[in-house]
Amino acid sequence: MWMVLLYGVATFMETGVGVWMFGRMFPERKSSSEYRWAKMILLTLLILTTYTMHRAYGQEYIYMKNFFL
Prior knowledge:
This protein has 69 residues and is mainly α. The chain is built from two helices and no strands.
């Protein structure tokens, strides 16, 4: 039982140290307006694509449902 607890603590410590080191390697950048526009464009495309795929597969699902009934 103690070995399982010891391995669990060691795993969490190793993960914490790895995240800390990775965070130190890449410092946080200041956000600029061009990145903000790029984020807005990508988010809009993601939402539109998701909506389109949902509508396309949703309609196909209705036809399959009617076919099997």
